[in-house]
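Teaching assistant here, posting this on the class forum so everyone can see the example we discussed in section. The complex has three components, and the goal was to see what a joint structure prediction looks like when all of them are supplied at once.
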Amino acid sequence: MGLNEIKAKKNDLITYGIVIILFAIVAVMVATGMATRHMQSILVPVCINIILAVSLNLVVGFLGELSLGHAGFMSVGAYAGCLFAIYTADILPAAVRFPLAMIIGGVVAAVFGVLIGIPVLRLSGDYLAIVTLAAGEIIRSVIINLGFTGGAAGLKGTPQDSNFIIGFVVVLITMFVIMNFVNSKHGRAIKAMRDNKIAAESCGVNLNSYKLLAFVMGAFFAGVAGVLYGHNYSILTADVFDYNRSIEILVIVVLGGIGSIRGSIISAIIITILPEALRGFADYRMLIYAIALIVMMLLNSSEKGREILSKLNFRSLGSLLKNRGAKKEVQGNDE
Amino acid sequence: MDFLSNLISGLSLGSIYALIALGYTMVYGIAKMLNFAHGDIIMVGAFTIIVSISTCGLPVWVALILSVVMCTVLGVVTERVAYKPLRKSEPLTVLITAIGVSYLLQNLALLIFGSSQKSFPSIFDISSVHIGDLSMSGESVVTLAVTIIIMIALSLFINKTRAGKAMRAVSEDKEAAELMGISVNKTISLTFAIGSALAAVAGVFYGATYGFIGPYTGSMPGIKAFVAAVFGGIGSIPGAMIGGLLLGVLESLSKAYISTELSDAIVFASLIVVLLVKPTGLLGKVIKEKV
Amino acid sequence: MKKNVFKKAFAVAMSVMMVGAFMTGCGSKSGSDENVLVIGGSGPLTGDYSTYGISVKQGAELAVKEINEAGGVNGTEFKLVFEDDMADPTSAASAYATMADNGMQVGLGATTSGACLTAVAEAEKDGILVVTPSASQVECAAPENVFRICFTDPLQGAYAAQVIKEKNIGTKVAVIYDKSNDYSAGIQKAFVDKAAEINLEVVTNQAFTNQSNTDFSVQLQAVKNSGADLVFLPIYAQEAAYILTQAQKLGINIQFMGGDGLDGVIEKAGEANVSALEDVLLLTPFFAKDDSDFVKAYRDEYGTTPDQFAADSYDAVYAIKAAMEKSGAVPTDSDFNEKMIAAMTEIEVEGVTGTMTWDKSGEPDKTAYIVQIKDGKYVEFN
């Protein structure tokens, strides 16, 4: 046990290291004027996607449950946080208002996580996926129909307080909380549950409360990411939080390796940059994006792809980035 | 009277959902994968009709055959290229790949046909059916009939034929089926071929009913049909039929009597309720957990 | 241990590769070339709304081509940079940044309102002139440096109610609108408010959303039962094509009327459905007249009939040209932006969407016509 913990700690430190080094490189580039405006414009979206991916990974990777409603929690958080910021814009200074907005957004999203989680977590697998997708779409429909959210025209007037540094700090906090949670007693219980539900249950792990805890925590950080998003643009519309957005986050998680925080972070960077880097291809941009997605998934999982990558002295991106590659394979044989 | 005409609207809408859901549920039931690209194969089928009739001037029956052949080939090829290498991977990986295929088809169609929707040639000339004051459009009557026929044929095929037996075996246990001398690859290919041919049929009726097809036409009906399939118990063929019809009726009635703008929220909410009461959908089989 | 090294190496290599590709992808910072004015615009070129973005792009492209063929303005050539924003604010912000990197000096904003608001927020900081063709939300033209070609949603809604009352086109009006679309919901709200004010009876409001915008049988049934004698459709042409063809199938024979979004419905509905469009009214500043030079040139270039999006952006580029001519500014001027913005309120543009002038608010002063569809063609209505 002790050895495992040390290993996990070391792994976490490497992840922090990578994130901090990347941040430092980007910060230097921005400071020296090497970064184009285009590049600067996607720094906050990268941070947002990292937070979303890491928090969804908690649900998909560690809990082992497929959720397609992450964008729904993001939107609830975004609206709550932004409404708070709009109403307190004249009263509170940005340094107080923005963190408060993030906490409020996170908490409201977490409350929705509880409300939705309690009934739907009784389901699992594809059924849970469709139900969370449905919940996300319900949230979107309701937001469009409410008056105080601005409806289809969108919510305007949120102070634009987001920036890369704040985004980076929130990323670090998210990583810290989720990584510690995963390595904690609760985290181990959740992993035990994912790997073998019945065995964990018979060892006295209370499935439902742990499931809910992880689900709600994921929702909380999705809400925080939503607030960060809302404060980055002058308008907030419900349409950007449709099921396609949830799918995009899921793509990041799966590409990075299910259950690997580091993988999620790196793949969030790649998936956010990819369509932007492809702007030069104009009309073919999204086509190439789709092909790249399929090829990455195939390379990532196929025997041949693994062979090719191992010949290049690289293992597949997924298992490279996740520290539990070997363990997963064992589990696969069980099924 | 109003209620009945709204009910008929719902049945017309539902029969389209049911037709799409049949293909969805078929692939899910056997191959155990959510084929997110199913809706886009419908779009390809419908575009094939438009090109062959409006552009090439082919007769309707040739166009219909072409459309079915096109979708079948597309389905089998995507299965071979994109899904087969992933057969041993986690289901999620396959799901994401299917989403990639869906994006690919949409964007290919966007490049080939442009962004604006194209009008679908009228291929059926059937007058509406009137009973008293009520009327149901000819297309809807035919769609409903075709959906029922396909449902029966599929059930017979799966339950009575050798290939159907193989499919059931593969769906229950791939390894055991392999040991019994069933070619899993061939069976899954056949499943995709049938599923995609059904998508072509759905594309034809979708086009005939609504009249317009664009690169993104398939995605929303695809999602709704997915919901319908889950509603009825995914994997169950009569379930897909019932789920589709119920979804259509529910959508129409909630538009008519509760709120036009919240109808989708109501449909999704009732899905959640149904699944909470009966976690495997209306006609879904309960699978025992194995230790 | 060795595995870890590879992990790290791979991760770092991958990131460096991505960032590298990204940097070179947009690193060609061209700055302002001596005699070139870079005009930047964005719109959805992929995704559900791509038909609007592509129209805007093509309209602007055509105008730029014509202007350059005629020798440019003040010895300056126009260059259009048009980026995909998928009608999404995030993408619109990075699209704007890409164009800024490419030396954009005048903007067309973004095609859709939500995306345009983010683009406009950036443009306000940069102080460049923005002439937005089609972003119809009021706030889009709020900054000093932004001017608009199309009508705002509230203006259009109120105007439609007024015209219906004055010309006695209908007495009991039903509205079918897209609740999830800002343009449609904006017009509907203003229409209903104005109707209440001038005693125009609105018998029913039937909504739909982008989650279900192909089957309108329930809404049409409700319209039929409401006893309306006019159906107002503040929506875009594609949805209108669905509604009109389905209304015909259901045997609903009520007068339909739409706003500028309805232009293009003839082409969208297709030849097979011409009869479904018979007698439909449009209240619009632009409609595609077969004999107009713009329509001919556009058809020659792209093989399709221009809609109001294309016409608006065509006019936007010509408005920029007029402002340059008026001010005599060239892109190398240090006060180019100020000169251009000042000139916008002094010009009069005879565009394809009408003759326009602007005041400081950035809103165009122009008129709309009522046209009627007869036999698949637009004719004047009186």
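For the discussion questions: The domain at 2-325 of chain A is CATH 1.10.3470 (ABC transporter involved in vitamin B12 uptake, BtuC). Residues 2-31 of chain A form the longest helix (30 residues). Think about how each of these relates to the inputs above.
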